[in-house]
Fold this sequence. Notes:
Elements: H1 2-5, H2 9-35, H3 42-84, E1 88-90, E2 93-95, H4 97-114, H5 118-133, H6 136-144, E3 154-162, H7 167-180, E4 185-193, E5 196-203, H8 210-221, E6 226-235
Antiparallel strand pairs: 1-2, 3-5, 3-6, 4-5
Helix pairs in contact: 2-3, 2-4, 2-5, 3-4, 4-5
Amino acid sequence: MNAIANFDGAEILNTFVSLLVAFVLGTAIGAERQYRQRTAGLRINALVALGASAFVDLGMRLMGNQGATQVLAYVASGVGFLGAGVIIKEGMNIRGLSTAATVWCSAVTGGFAGADRPAEALLLAGFVLAGNTLLRPLVRLIERSPIDETATEAIYDVRVAASGARRDAIRDTLIERLEAASYPIQDMAENEREDGVEIVATLATSSATGEQLDAVVEALAALDGVSHATWSSRTSD
Length: 237
């Protein structure tokens, strides 16, 4: 009998509108992902928005604004786990971050709809679509721009393969050469090898020039007891 007592046509209509808004906007966001053949496409984004809207709407029906606020906290954390499922690591490359962020935004869009804020839901969906479409030309423009090494934040490693007998002398010379080139060392490490040791110096500076580092490793490679010297860079977190 509680089901009959709780039947309220106005509330049901309100819920229908909230779910409809979430479904339509989630579908619009997902359609763009589907078009680009992303892991989380149309159905996932539509269902995420729909589910978030339903949870928030139910929280409001049961406990008002306080209930909706509590449910939103759980929706945000739960969608975070869902978004992690579309992130794929392939070697040194990570794919799916933008799709995971889109799923997260779809949940917020549904949350707005469930909280009876359709205008805000529409506004957010518009910004999400703009971020995934209008910003793409800007991203391509930046990626095609020449890289200014002096402005690039990166981690530089200088590696020297040395004989065990000359380890200490070569390590001291490595430090002197780098400091003379105004490249202070942040960290030093030694990796044992069958034919000796590999000394790895991580530079404290976030920018360097290839010409200077080439000169440093060329001088190190000419040292007695050094079989190989090189440098490499990697992006910082």
